[in-house]
Amino acid sequence: MKRARIGGSIARLTVAVLAATSVMGLGFVHPFGNPRVESARGLGTLLQGANLPPDAKAILVTKCADCHSSETRWPIYSRVAPGSWLIERDIVEARKHMNLSRWELLSMEQQQVLLAKISHEAKSGDMPPLQYVALHWGARLSQADVHTLSMMSKNAGASETTLAGTGDAARGKLVFDKRCTGCHSMEINGEGPRLSGVYGRKAGSVPGFDYSQGLKNSGMTWNDATLEKWLSGPDSVVPDAKMDFYVPKAGERQDLIAYFKR
After folding, report:
1. Of 10, 28, 39, 103, which sees the most CB atoms within 10 A?
2. How many CB atoms lie within 10 A of CB 206?
3. Peptide linkage before 82 cis (omega within 30 of 0)
């Protein structure tokens, strides 16, 4: 009887060891890609050449870099499958959308688009994700953080001025394809409303799109003057504007307006 009990205990221990070994071993399998292969260079290397306010840089480095750069901290539980697979999947996706370790490789236009998205997601509360904040409470954004991030894309460069009506629609389409399609489509609503027929349309009037109350109540109609102001800085037109992106080059603004008018 005693031998049987000892034998049963050994069998259970063997099963437990094999199960633990299997789980730990599966932690070295990467079904969604392996974000661990990117070499860390230190948080101090992030955004060194970025033309951003120091307080905005600090927020991005301290609260975003864990997922959005190669400087990810890997806790012990991140090696235990299948949880490790979910963590790696989220980090792979996060770096696709924004990788602070590769910021200097982005063009000026790409950086401006990304800053606008950061600003929008900070104000909307979409970032950081709730599941991440639940485990990393210090990563939550304060109201001061949100304000700082929302100001990054506003007045980041001096806006030029030019004469209305001097744009080129063909160039405007190129600008639209390069700078605007991350949020907008001409034909369907996305993160931004559809823009087909925007010229001459009342602001905040596309059915099915969730505009800010300020834009819906603005009474504006989109024409040369209002589009010029809007593309120069939406917050200067409507304080609660959900759009954070602006076009600093006057020529590109006029080309976009010409494209919208075609």
Report:
1. 103
2. 17
3. yes
- Provide the token pair at 143: 């109201």
Count the neighbouring beta carbons within 10 Å of the beta carbon of residue 14. 10
**To which residue do tokens 């975003």 refer?**
64
H helices of 125-243, in order, are 130-135, 143-150, 169-179, 213-216, 224-232
Residue in 252, 118, 228, 244 with CA at minimum distance from that of residue 177: 252
**pLDDT of 85-110, one tens digit each?**
888 898 999 999 889 999 988 887 77
Closest-CA residue to 70 (of 49, 43, 48): 43
β-partners of residue 221 are: 202
Measure the CA–CA gap between 116 and 151, rounded to whole angstroms. Answer: 9
- pLDDT range class, residue 27, cuts 50, 70, 90: low
CB under 8 Å to 172, separation ≥6 — which residues? 252, 255, 256, 257, 258, 259, 260
Query: Which residue pairs from 186-192 have beta carbons closer than 8 angstroms and sit at least 24 positions apart in sequence?
Result: 191/120, 192/243
Q: At 26, which amino acid appears?
A: L
pTM of the predicted model as reported, rounded to 2 decimal places: 0.58
**Computed from CA positions of residues 161, 167, 172, 175, in that sequence, does the dihedral angle turn out positive or negative?**
negative
